[in-house]
Write a sequence for this structure.
């Protein structure tokens, strides 16, 4: 096979059995790689209704079709499973270079099944895979585990694994690779922990075959040039993803004090400029990326002085900063380091802390409930303490480790109103009341409240249309124009393909679909046009939707927290605005070819996408 | 001819604007000093711009590349002196002054026109290098990316200035506009 290695590993942890399988040509064609192929295996092999932390769940890692080729910014792998946080389809992906090394080790992906009796790790050395004992690594942090494995196996091994949070089944535990890179969302680190799988170490020299090297070289060269002179490329390199913090704030959409307002008065103390001044050491990037939006950082003052690591990124800064009403960039940076080392998703972790702070403010949670802790907005030391407690499930941390949805269910007293999640997944830091269409994207994203599924924040908050779809213009972010729901659908489909090929989504701002198709064609050696590009995205997206429908999801689940639907923003340019989701939903479903009452993809749509075999699973018949 | 960069040049330019404010009737022609001055006043009075551009530092030159087909025979430089949400001035300037702006954005006349008419998205045009930062510089490009909302607001305001474009003028008006540009060239080196 070209682009893909053509092989995956199946690892039964309960029986400690490893086998190799070829990826069927047809699956490769229909789903490309990464999120696409992994999702197809998950759909076929995981039955509805299973316990996400039980033996029947599968954890599937898959690198993208372009991952590891010199195509710009193609470094990513996807992980899929049923999520313990949302109880629906979960996908998370990460850059760095682990996904590249996985391919060089000879495999596109790995399917983990069952539960190991004792802690274990998988080692793949240039085509040979074995399970090893990991009892000594259990209880160790991400950095300790990585260092110990490298010491045992050799420096050239690259490690993806979990920290203590994953072992303790924190519902939003992350899988970390390259020490600081995170497959963060949906709690897949907890799935890994439930399987007693501590880490996967990979190394290899296998070549990724490219069908037409000359054409590939030409088109990727063009893309590098494009990126080299793109203001967004420069912006991301200059400020990292915190580039967007000021922009979101001036739109009145930077969630502050757990989304009580969208205007943060201390944005200048935590923005990209401040980060550069206070903690930046140098810019770092993923494999084959000229943008380098990552940040090597060091804390230079205060109680955490001398601590080093990578990040924080925009979401982390906005959430541990504005959302927790904390203007102390050093503590934000420290919280980020801790999350990386414990293996925690910073979005869910910080949001849960902000939610807890508001519960305290309203007397829903008391000092007695919290084992004597006094939790209030703006308390930077308390944030750090809570991160420790969550990872260890210590005291009140045990409750916080469940995420905001479960917390609100347990606490009651109308706290669900300001528990800022969709389908159980905590929302990222863009207030959709300040850019209405982004609320639709939160409400409908397959993995729950998420921004990157269809990054419609680009054409709204950043005012920059995505070139990868034909028309991504949003006329006025504060108006609800039902026709613009097509932008959400198109972006979701297109960005799904990015996850399938392993490309960074920032590329979607600079290159159009035709250019990406040319790269795919050059790599695979087959004709590949824009129509196929769009269809593969839509097919994959619909298959994921069917997975969720099979789990019992309905139109009623495509919604937003009450705060966004009912509480107007109190200040800023979006003052007085709420989300009126109903204006959008029917139109979105219509563009999608989904039934307006049930939210199910129609049989016609599934047939059109070549998914006829799944129709029976949501319309009676086989379950 | 007034020497570029001198007090004399500045004073006479101000006088010219004052005279033309009296003599010319609205809508003003884009690329004339009176249009630039009107734009400056509107930016200055705009609270939203003040808010979104409150951290912006640096002058921006908009270079309208010559396009004889669109009745523009020479490049025209508009220099915006922008500082922390203020528009301290907006002037038509000679190339040597314009090229010294902190951020020089260059595009064909037709492209600028479509941007100002909001047929094209200014951020997308910058992101795809069709409004080109000249010379390209990573640090400056990063600042421009961070100022996306300020750029949008400036274009919104420009759209609110009651104006007309050179290639939309009737023949008599066009003749006098071209004659005026010649005068500007002679007197102000523009
Ligand atoms: S832009 Fe950032 S996230 Fe994307 S590939 Fe480059 S370094 Fe990685």
């Amino acid at each position: 096979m070209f682009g893909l290695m053509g092989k995956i590993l199946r690892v039964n942890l309960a029986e400690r059995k490893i086998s190799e399988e070829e990826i069927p040509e047809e699956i490769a064609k229909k789903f490309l790689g990464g999120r696409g192929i992994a999702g197809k295996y998950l759909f076929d092999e995981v039955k509805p209704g299973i316990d996400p932390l039980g033996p029947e769940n599968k954890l599937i890692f898959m690198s993208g079709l372009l991952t590891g080729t010199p195509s710009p910014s193609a470094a990513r792998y996807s992980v899929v499973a049923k999520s313990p946080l949302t109880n629906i389809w979960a996908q998370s992906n990460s850059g760095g270079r682990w996904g590249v090394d996985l391919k060089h080790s000879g495999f596109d992906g790995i399917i983990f099944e069952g539960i190991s009796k004792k802690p274990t790790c998988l080692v793949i050395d240039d085509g040979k895979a074995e399970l090893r004992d990991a009892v000594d690594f259990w209880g160790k942090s991400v950095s300790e585990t990585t260092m110990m494995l490298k010491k045992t196996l050799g420096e050239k091994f690259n490690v993806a694994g979990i920290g203590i949070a994953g072992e303790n089944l924190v519902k939003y535990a992350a899988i970390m690779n390259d020490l600081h890179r995170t497959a963060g969302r949906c709690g897949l680190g907890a799935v890994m922990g439930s399987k007693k799988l501590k880490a996967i170490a990979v190394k290899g020299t296998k070549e990724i075959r490219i069908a037409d090297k000359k054409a590939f070289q030409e088109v990727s060269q063009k893309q590098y040039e494009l990126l080299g002179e793109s203001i967004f490329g420069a912006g991301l390199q200059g400020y990292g993803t915190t580039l967007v913090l000021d922009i979101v704030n001036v739109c009145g959409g930077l969630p502050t004090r757990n989304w009580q307002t969208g205007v943060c008065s201390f944005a200048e103390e935590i923005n990209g400029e401040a980060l550069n001044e206070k903690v930046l050491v140098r810019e770092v990037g993923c494999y084959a990326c000229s943008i380098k939006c990552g940040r090597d950082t060091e804390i230079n003052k205060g109680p955490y002085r001398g601590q080093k690591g990578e990040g924080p990124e925009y979401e982390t800064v906005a959430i541990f900063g504005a959302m927790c009403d904390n203007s102390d960039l050093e503590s934000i940076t420290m919280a980020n380091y801790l999350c990386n080392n414990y293996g925690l998703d910073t979005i869910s972790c910080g949001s849960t802390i902000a939610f807890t702070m508001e519960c305290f403010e309203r007397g829903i949670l008391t000092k007695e409930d919290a084992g004597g802790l006094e939790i209030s907005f703006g308390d930077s030391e308390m944030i750090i303490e809570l991160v420790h407690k969550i990872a260890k499930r210590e005291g009140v941390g045990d409750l916080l480790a469940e995420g905001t949805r479960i917390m609100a269910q347990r606490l009651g007293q109308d706290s669900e109103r300001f528990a800022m999640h969709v389908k159980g997944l905590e929302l990222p830091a863009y207030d959709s009341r300040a850019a209405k269409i982004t609320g639709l994207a939160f409400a409908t994203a397959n993995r729950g409240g998420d921004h990157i599924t269809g990054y419609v924040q680009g054409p709204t908050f950043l005012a920059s249309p995505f070139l990868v779809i034909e028309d991504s213009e949003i006329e006025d972010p504060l108006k609800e124009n039902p026709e613009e729901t097509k932008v959400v659908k198109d972006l979701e489909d297109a960005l799904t393909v990015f996850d399938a090929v392993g490309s960074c989504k920032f590329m979607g701002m600079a290159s159009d679909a035709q250019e990406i198709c040319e790269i795919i064609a050059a790599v695979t050696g087959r004709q590949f046009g824009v129509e196929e590009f769009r269809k593969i995205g839509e097919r994959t997206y619909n298959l994921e939707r069917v997975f969720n429908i099979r789990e019992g999801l309905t139109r009623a689940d495509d919604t937003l927290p009450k705060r966004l639907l009912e509480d107007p923003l109190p200040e800023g340019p979006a003052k007085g605005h709420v989300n009126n989701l109903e204006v959008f939903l029917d139109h979105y479903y219509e563009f999608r070819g989904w039934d307006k009452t049930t939210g199910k993809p129609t049989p016609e749509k599934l047939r059109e996408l070549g998914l006829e075999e799944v129709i029976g699973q949501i319309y009676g018949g086989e379950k | 001819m007034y020497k570029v960069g001198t007090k004399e040049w500045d004073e006479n330019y101000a006088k010219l604007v004052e005279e033309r404010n009296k003599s010319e009737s609205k809508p003003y022609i884009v690329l004339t000093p009176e249009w630039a001055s009107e734009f400056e006043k509107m930016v200055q009075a705009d609270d939203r711009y003040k808010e979104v551009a409150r951290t912006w530092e640096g002058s921006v030159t908009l270079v309208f590349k010559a396009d004889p087909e669109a009745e523009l025979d020479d490049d025209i430089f508009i220099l915006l002196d922008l500082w922390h949400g203020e528009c301290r001035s907006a002037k038509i300037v000679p190339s040597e002054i314009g090229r010294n702006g902190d951020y020089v954005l260059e595009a064909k006349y037709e492209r600028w026109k479509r941007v100002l008419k909001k047929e094209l998205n200014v951020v997308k045009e910058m992101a795809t290098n069709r409004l080109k930062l000249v010379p390209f510089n990573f640090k400056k490009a990063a600042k421009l990316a961070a100022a996306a909302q300020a750029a949008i607001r400036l274009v919104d305001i420009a759209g609110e200035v009651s104006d007309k474009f050179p290639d939309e003028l009737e023949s008599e008006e066009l003749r006098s506009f071209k004659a005026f540009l010649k005068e500007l060239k002679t007197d102000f080196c523009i």
